[in-house]
Amino acid sequence: MSELRKKSPADLSAKLAGETRYLHDLNFPGQLVGAIYRSPYAHARILSINVERAKQVEGVAAVLTADDLPSYKYGPTKFKDWNLLAKDRVLFIGDEIVAIAAETKEAAQRALELVEVEFEPLPGVFDPEDSLKPGAPLLHEDVESNKPMQVSVSRGDLEEGKRKAAVVKGGRYYSNRVYQGHLEPVGAIASWSDEEGITIWAPSHIPYRARETYAAGFGLPEDKVRIIVPPIGGSFGAKYVLKVHVIAAALAMAARRHVKIILDRYEDMITAHPRVPLTFDIEIGADEEGRFVYKELTVYADAGARVYWSPNVVSTVCTRADNIYHFGSVKSEGYLCYTNNSPTTCMRGFGNAEMLFAVESVIDEIALELNMDPAELRLKNIVHQGDTTLHGYRLDTCKLDECIEKVKELSGWHRRASLPPYRGLGLAVANHVSGFRAIDPRFDGSTAVIRLKQDGGIEVETGEIELGQGMSLTYARIASKILGIPEEAILVKSGDTGRYPFGIGTLASRSTVMGGNAVQKAAQSLAARLKELARETLGEAADFREGAAVLEGQTYSLSELASWYRARHAGEELEIKETYVPDTDLPDATYFGHPSPNYPFAAHVAEVEVDPDTGRTKVIGYWAVHDSGTIIHETMAKGQVLGAIAQGVGWVTMEDLLVKDGKVMNPSMMDYRMPGANDMPKAEVFFIQGKDPNGPLGAKSIGEVALDPVPGAIANAIAHATGKRGYALPLSAEKVWKSLQNT
Amino acid sequence: MSAGQQDGNFKLNLNGQEVVWSGEPAASLADVIREQQGLTGTKIGCRTGECGACTVLLEGRPVVSCLIPAASVQGQQVETIEGLARLEEFQSLMAAMQENGGVQCGFCTPGVMVTTWAWLQNPALFNGDLGSALKNNLCRCTGYLGIIRSAEQVLAGRGAGV
């Protein structure tokens, strides 16, 4: 039965043997190559488009401009500012104007070169704060002052908090534009038929939401759009919803052939939808004993030219960290701003990791001022099991205090006072969610189908998506534990909106808890049904346990049970569908609510060595302690944490997608440096085991909380090593060196 | 190398077999392997030799096949992930990678496996540890430690006669 699992595209042995077929590896008969003519201007009026010469190129099958396409305003969130192709105006360098499908890449390239577009350049705006100033060029005519969204959160008496404060620390922090750095470049294949409508092969981990978005773009009913998700070669948030998907679809409709578009790395990076850059003005006050009394925040977020998922990131920035400490009172103002930069979107950590960089930095400053141990200051202010947080999160489980104690022990925190010069230890903590109700207020649960196959294997279908995080292995393990059968007998399938149950999408760290609960529920129902089946067939004394029916010492395998079922049900297979509906409350207009079934926590310590001659930081040790409830698959969970540490090391010490006047200055993997094997520190990962009542087998999420504390921990370690606080990520060698010169 | 040839026929020794391909001599080895030979285990991540997803073995040494003109390797041994996966000892590396969390999304994995395999054959070739050998293989998921541990485990197991 081990062969069963091997069929899954998520199977690790298939990946290791090079058998897994990603989007790039799929081809269809008669498939065309798609290409996109993009704006060279950050902001310009389109005076004319002439594609006549492009159409004459031999091998060109379709050339599309906005005039050939529907012009609905659509978009993945409630801000509908997308178009299929630009009509009158372009809003960023890389904005899509003309789409071409041709027999070969060369023909498509020749046609691109013959497209003639006349532009009238317009002044652009590139800084989110500037974009709100009077007289700034307006990006979207129907949105007043480039501000599609403003978040205002206020809880408690801020003025009273300010009166009580004995120490106030803060300043202006800045989180950078981080490229998700997926190894597999962005792409899509699309086809069209009158009966089926649009089919898109796209490595999106929110395919149902993408279906809804794309259907709206073409004015089609949702069931005329089907998204099939091939194995995903890395996303970290970059591959939710993308214009390249709809452009491939538009070309397929026009040419009535399959169209494949794979962006090369340059094109991927100039039009990348990186992490939303944020400018924070933050202040935290504490009384003489170190108890926090207020936190005040104003944040400007660069949405770029069009809204992808940045609004949700801003809401998270303005609320999430307030649920980790008892701040007493908080006030946050968040401004999402349009600029003529390429659109930005989510990346692992989703606003929380960025905010925690600033919060954890400020808390270390307070500790320094109060002459307190930073770990003690945190222990004094953190939330605990049984608490309801400032914004309403109900913490049925929380072992953050244990995480802090354990990470101190593992890292040798007591060494902190006696480290040699330019060595530092920094600590940071984090929380996260396991799914988030407001991602889709209509429904936030998950559905699983479980099926007994004729050979005795079990198939699980889910609406959640495997993107390398280990979801399929986790679900197989959940079903295996419930049914008492080997994991190898279980095949987990997902990633086709035409076949598998509906899912919100694999974001907000929801796969283990939301999807896992659905799988657990379905497996429990199947176990009960199999018991019934055993009795129906063998008699009342029969039982079902450990993967077999049992009667008087005789066992009957799952394969036999499958045959009995078929015989009694006209050849049908035994199949059960269960939906998990989480007991969450949608945050209200003031952002108060209980949005997730449970909340994971973590405490991390980083050790760094800074070279005073160059400013270069080397992370030399890392300790990560997590409360993620019961760990279902330790290898994959640990892999999530280690991967997050590497991403954090990159984020804090080297990565920055540089943009000047809307132009990406380092659009290659040579110039945008990501961590390699030798940048990774020695790291120790420890899980404080527990059992959350709301998670499958007691589990909470791990994927994002693993990254959340990393920037803060490394930044604090650098400050400890150098005595200088870094306010703007990345804390590159140049910036650290400069701070060392300012004595 | 048959310089100056245009759209000719070329011989390639791929995974121990001689194959003939036709096309532009400057076509990248990665494209020829993937498109003409259908061996899609070799991935293309950047086409600039930075990410290492396209790593194959050329005469036993890992190279980034996206930068190598296919015609320039005539007569030399090229091994891809598909060729290596057939070897028995490769299975122990695969098992170790699963056990130690050396693989997640899998896109960089074939390239990582090819480099790691070459290191296992001859660690001295890389003047140092596996971390240095992997300097041309980016992995965005695993944090590398699982990969390194897997390779060390296979090396240690071999030393113990496993």
Task: Tell me what the structure shows.
Chain B: This is Ferredoxin. Chain B: It holds the Pfam family Fer2. Chain B: InterPro entries: 2Fe-2S-bd, 2Fe-2S-bd_dom_sf, 2Fe-2S_ferredoxin-like_sf, 2Fe-2S_ferredoxin-type, 2Fe2S_fd_BS, Beta-grasp_dom_sf, Diverse_Oxidoreductases. Chain B: Keywords: 2Fe-2S, Iron, Iron-sulfur, Metal-binding, Oxidoreductase. Chain B: GO terms for molecular function: 2 iron, 2 sulfur cluster binding; metal ion binding; oxidoreductase activity. The complex is a heterodimer of chains A (743) and B (162). By secondary structure, chain A is of the alpha+beta class. Chain A has three domains: 22-122 and 187-262, Aldehyde oxidase/xanthine dehydrogenase, a/b hammerhead (Aldehyde Oxidoreductase, domain 3, Alpha-Beta Complex), CATH 3.90.1170; 278-437 and 588-741, Aldehyde oxidase/xanthine dehydrogenase, molybdopterin binding domain (Aldehyde Oxidoreductase, domain 4); 445-580, Aldehyde Oxidoreductase, domain 4, CATH 3.30.365. With 162 residues, chain B is an alpha+beta fold. Chain B has two domains: 8-83, Beta-grasp domain (Ubiquitin-like (UB roll), Roll); 84-158, Orthogonal Bundle (DNA polymerase, domain 1). Chain B has six helices and five strands. In chain B, strands 2-1-5-3-4 form a five-stranded mixed β-sheet, sandwiched between helices. The longest helix of chain B is centred in the C-terminal third of the chain and has 15 residues, at 145-159. Chain B is globular, with a radius of gyration of 16 Å. Chain B starts with 7 loop residues before the first strand and ends with a helix. At the A-B interface, helix 2 and helix 17 of A face helix 2, helix 3, helix 4, helix 5 and helix 6 of B.
Write the SSE topology.
The complex is a heterodimer of chains A (743) and B (162).
Chain A: H1 2-6, H2 12-16, E1 32-38, E2 44-50, H3 52-56, E3 60-64, E4 89-90, E5 96-102, H4 105-114, E6 116-121, H5 128-131, E7 149-155, H6 158-164, E8 167-175, E9 187-193, E10 197-201, H7 207-218, E11 225-228, H8 243-255, E12 259-262, H9 265-270, E13 278-286, E14 292-304, H10 310-319, E15 330-338, H11 352-370, H12 374-381, H13 400-411, E16 423-431, E17 446-452, E18 458-462, H14 471-483, E19 490-493, H15 511-538, E20 543-545, E21 548-551, E22 554-557, H16 558-568, E23 575-580, E24 601-610, E25 617-627, H17 634-653, E26 659-660, E27 663-664, E28 682-687, H18 710-722, H19 733-741
Parallel strand pairs in A: 1-12, 10-11, 14-15, 18-19, 25-28
Antiparallel strand pairs in A: 1-5, 2-4, 2-6, 3-5, 7-15, 8-13, 9-10, 9-12, 13-14, 16-24, 17-18, 17-23, 20-21, 21-22, 24-25, 26-27
Helix pairs in contact in A: 11-18, 14-15, 17-18
Chain B: E1 8-14, E2 17-23, H1 29-36, E3 55-58, E4 61-64, E5 77-79, H2 81-85, H3 88-99, H4 109-121, H5 130-133, H6 145-159
Parallel strand pairs in B: 1-5
Antiparallel strand pairs in B: 1-2, 3-4, 3-5
